[in-house]
Every structure is written in structure tokens, then in C-alpha cells.
């Protein structure tokens, strides 16, 4: 028989996690000729698929690295792994006892963010998470659990590939009720993920501010008809624009029955805005 070398493992196998979250089991071996490699999990041969792949790296001088890569790692991947090598001169086995904890915990797909819609009438706190195990999502403000109401809407959508969209929508947010810290906890059997939102009501310099309480007045219109007038006083820089919304949140337009008014008060950037309804 020609010269050769039976497969053997000159050092202990190692496990390492890559930056992309995958895990690699690596066996260092020597053999000549190149051995056949098979990987087993609990005595069942591992076949290549979307999560498991293997390769053999040649390091020269009859030295090799046999590597098993596991993607989308989960706690259920823990257990006994075996690397079996064989060539015409012999065979060998390297064993791993892989212990995993917390690898199935939820993770962020999109970080928490705060946005708004409908001209600021709806505040949205939202994020996306990935969880291989079925998660629960709980919203809290301080120590109190947030429940759905006429002002609070909780949104949870499963978007595929074990990903979830979670949001809390606040209708007509108010400083005295909604300022503070909101937390959403995504939790499964492996661990939990916390999304934190700090809600602040800061008025930018020059932004409109009310100078008095709104008033509802009754008067006679220029045409002699009775009319109701909504009267607002405010202060603002940079040529303010006033938009009136009806009870359904729709932008109103002037007509024969609806008239808008915006006049300076004579003070420092102070104005009166009026809506007249006949």
C-alpha cells in the first residue's frame, strides 16, 4: 500500500460565533489522502440545507479544517455533534457537546422609532423584531401596562420569516397624559427584548403657541345671517398658516357657509384666527 496517513485530530475542536450570528464548529485534522467528512447530530447525519453547511479547508502539509456552519441559531440546536472522518488508512471522530442559552431570544430587525401621521394627530411608536419562537408583546408606561382604548391602539403584525411589527399609536397625544417613557417587551421562552421610547413635548423656537383659551362666539354675519365663530389667539414666527379640520379630521375649505379669518393682533407676532360657520 502506498504511503499515507490515517486521519486523526491533533487538537481539540472549537466553536465560535460569527459577526452575522451564525455558529461554526471546527475540527483540526491531519490525513493523507484527503478524508471523507460527515457530520452528525444525535447520531443523525446532517445534510446540507438553508441552515446547515459544511466545508473542508486545506491548510497544507496534510492538515485540514473541517467546519460545520449553523445559521439562524436556536436554543434547540444544542446537543451532541460529531465529526466523522475516514480515508483508506483509518478513521476518527471528534465530538462536540454544544450548549446554547438565549440564542432564540427576540432581536431587533428595525430599531425603535417615533413618528407621526395625520398632521401630528397620531403619534406612532414602532419597531420590528425577529423571533424564531412565538413571542408576546407587552406595552408599559412606567409600571402600568398600556391597554387599548379610544386613544391608544396597539398594533402587532407577523410579516413573515419570523419577523414581527409592533406599534403603539396614540390619538391626539397630550403632554399631561403621554409625556414620559414607554417600553415594549417582546418575550419568548428563550429570552426577551426591550424597546424603549422617550416621549417629549418640546416646542421648537418660533413654533406656534396659543396665547389664550379658544372661544366660541355668536354673531351676525356680514350678510345679516346668524353665525357661530371659533376664535383662536396664538403667537408664531415666519408667516404662520392656519388649517381648520372638521370633526372627522378632514381639512376644511371656504365656501358660502364657511369663512376663514387671520389677522395680526398688533402684539409681538400675535394673531387671531377665526372660523365662521353660517
TrEMBL record:
<dbReference type="GO" id="GO:0007156">
    <property type="term" value="P:homophilic cell adhesion via plasma membrane adhesion molecules"/>
</dbReference>
<dbReference type="InterPro" id="IPR013783">
    <property type="entry name" value="Ig-like_fold"/>
</dbReference>
<dbReference type="GO" id="GO:0008046">
    <property type="term" value="F:axon guidance receptor activity"/>
</dbReference>
<dbReference type="GO" id="GO:0005886">
    <property type="term" value="C:plasma membrane"/>
</dbReference>
<dbReference type="InterPro" id="IPR036179">
    <property type="entry name" value="Ig-like_dom_sf"/>
</dbReference>
<keyword id="KW-0393">Immunoglobulin domain</keyword>
<dbReference type="InterPro" id="IPR003599">
    <property type="entry name" value="Ig_sub"/>
</dbReference>
<keyword id="KW-0677">Repeat</keyword>
<dbReference type="InterPro" id="IPR003598">
    <property type="entry name" value="Ig_sub2"/>
</dbReference>
<dbReference type="Pfam" id="PF07679">
    <property type="entry name" value="I-set"/>
</dbReference>
<protein>
    <submittedName>
        <fullName>Ig-like domain-containing protein</fullName>
    </submittedName>
</protein>
<dbReference type="GO" id="GO:0050808">
    <property type="term" value="P:synapse organization"/>
</dbReference>
<feature type="domain" description="Ig-like">
    <location>
        <begin position="106"/>
        <end position="200"/>
    </location>
</feature>
<dbReference type="InterPro" id="IPR013098">
    <property type="entry name" value="Ig_I-set"/>
</dbReference>
<dbReference type="GO" id="GO:0030424">
    <property type="term" value="C:axon"/>
</dbReference>
<keyword id="KW-0732">Signal</keyword>
<dbReference type="InterPro" id="IPR050958">
    <property type="entry name" value="Cell_Adh-Cytoskel_Orgn"/>
</dbReference>
<dbReference type="GO" id="GO:0043025">
    <property type="term" value="C:neuronal cell body"/>
</dbReference>
<dbReference type="InterPro" id="IPR007110">
    <property type="entry name" value="Ig-like_dom"/>
</dbReference>
<feature type="domain" description="Ig-like">
    <location>
        <begin position="7"/>
        <end position="101"/>
    </location>
</feature>
<keyword id="KW-1015">Disulfide bond</keyword>
Amino acid at each position: 500500500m502506498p504511503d499515507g496517513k490515517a486521519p486523526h485530530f491533533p487538537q481539540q475542536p472549537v466553536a465560535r460565533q460569527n459577526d452575522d450570528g451564525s455558529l461554526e464548529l471546527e475540527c483540526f485534522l491531519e490525513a493523507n489522502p484527503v478524508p471523507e467528512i460527515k457530520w452528525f447530530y444525535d447520531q443523525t447525519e446532517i445534510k446540507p440545507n438553508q441552515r446547515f453547511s459544511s466545508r473542508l479547508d486545506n491548510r497544507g502539509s496534510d492538515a485540514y479544517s473541517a467546519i460545520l456552519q449553523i445559521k439562524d441559531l436556536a436554543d434547540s440546536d444544542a446537543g451532541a455533534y460529531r465529526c466523522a472522518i475516514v480515508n483508506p488508512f483509518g478513521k476518527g471522530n471528534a465530538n462536540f457537546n454544544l450548549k446554547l442559552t438565549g440564542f432564540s431570544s427576540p432581536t431587533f430587525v428595525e430599531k425603535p422609532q417615533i413618528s407621526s401621521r395625520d398632521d401630528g394627530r397620531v403619534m406612532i411608536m414602532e419597531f420590528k423584531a425577529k423571533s424564531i419562537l412565538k413571542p408576546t408583546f407587552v406595552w408599559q408606561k412606567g409600571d402600568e401596562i398600556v391597554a387599548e382604548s379610544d386613544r391608544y391602539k396597539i398594533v402587532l403584525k407577523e410579516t413573515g420569516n419570523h419577523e414581527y411589527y409592533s406599534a403603539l399609536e396614540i390619538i391626539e397625544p397630550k403632554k399631561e397624559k403621554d409625556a414620559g417613557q414607554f417600553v415594549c417587551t417582546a418575550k419568548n421562552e428563550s429570552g426577551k427584548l426591550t424597546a424603549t421610547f422617550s416621549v417629549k413635548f418640546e416646542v421648537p423656537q418660533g413654533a406656534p403657541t396659543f396665547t389664550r383659551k379658544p372661544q366660541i362666539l355668536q354673531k351676525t354675519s356680514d350678510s345679516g345671517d346668524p353665525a357661530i365663530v371659533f376664535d383662536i389667539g396664538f403667537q408664531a414666527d415666519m408667516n404662520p398658516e392656519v388649517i381648520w379640520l372638521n370633526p372627522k379630521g378632514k381639512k376644511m375649505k371656504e365656501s358660502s357657509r364657511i369663512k376663514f379669518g387671520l389677522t395680526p393682533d398688533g402684539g409681538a407676532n400675535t394673531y387671531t384666527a377665526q372660523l365662521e360657520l353660517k
